[in-house]
Amino acid sequence: MLAQVERTLRDSCRVTPGSRLLVAVSGGGDSVALLALLHELAETYPLTLIAAHFDHQMRPTSAADAEFVANVCGQLGIPLTIGSENVSALASRRGAGLEEAARFARRDFLEKTATNTDCDAVALGHHQGDQAETFLHRLIRGSGLSGLASMRFRSGLYVRPLLDLAPIQLKAYLQERGLSFVDDESNADRRFTRNRIRHDLVPLLQTFNPQIVPHLNALASRFGCEEDYWQLETLRAFSACARDEDGDVCFEREALLALHVALRMRVLRHGLIRVRGRVHGIVSAHLEAVEAQLLSPVPQSDLDVGEAWSCRRYNRLFLRKKPFPAADSFEIEIDGPGTFSLPGGYELKVSLACESGVKGLLAVEFDAQKVAFPLRARSFRKGDRFQPSGMAGHKKVKDFFVDEKIPREARQRIPLVESDGKILWIAGWRRCAGFAPHEAGGTVLRLEIVEANPSTGNGR
Known about the structure:
about 20% strand
């Protein structure tokens, strides 16, 4: 078994001789076996070992567990760092379950300890039984294929040198070496999902197939191998159809739809991980909801996908930490020529000229004899209508926005310039019919949209 652990450490965990390993030791049989095996192995496969124990303060005997681990490490001559936190209180503060809070606190302690002790990796004592339980736990929770790859031999900082060993092998090793360990009574507490899987579900499945645990391990391993391939394809596709916008991820809808649905779902999952900062908590139901949003005939929608938001805006899909903020309403009185500040870093320049001379979407001119001050620049209101240039009848401003595929957040920031209650100009987009400057001359009322700080870039 020592030779098997050495091969796993070298080939699967990618831990090279001379590495510094932080070994997580709870005091239970698996972690004690891990520490003892690595200690034996360190004689021929040079390793520097440091132990770490975390007290979750969830049991009256937890302080005794820490003392037990300290004695084991003292006998082996391995330095030990002990951490502690009231996980029940942490769960209340975070609004999380006990299992999730315990995992967060433990991982935080291990990673900080690894940094402080200059360790190359953190060794965990997971074995085949743990892998089978993880697979079933994620299956029940609704994980996709990526999640069903379950635990890997190496995941970033963490390594699992015992992952291809059966629990019975570790028990035999402990007996042969005469190693003692502590029993964590919370492992029998069926309030925790993983305990119900271990004590109820796995034994039930073994009545159908006694080899269910190694079979589930083999399946997770195959999923893991395929996941490595898919990860490369996902990164290529993500780079081709996504871009970063101030920490948000923006996709062009057509680029996503051009992908095979299997790849598209993985690209969406990668985007959610980028936005959320972690994979934990992303399940198949989230991805299926975003896929449905992408395919929907509804052009604009917002969707809560667990610590992130998916926002469809016509031909774009945004993955964001929070929904788009609603724009504030505004109204600006314009009693004569001048420059007036607008939302979004723009200005409205109002001037009188002797002759017509501007073109483009960001400037418009009217006959000053037909349009009188005061003017008003304001945000869109429900029920607004205007007569677009080139049309005989009137049109709802909302319908104009829909036709132009203007996102709902942008609509409230677009100034509507009106005179005497009549909308003259949807600034930067469309003027009204009539009131054009007289060809024979006369005073021209000129309105222009300009950037307040042109160095920040151009925009419509």
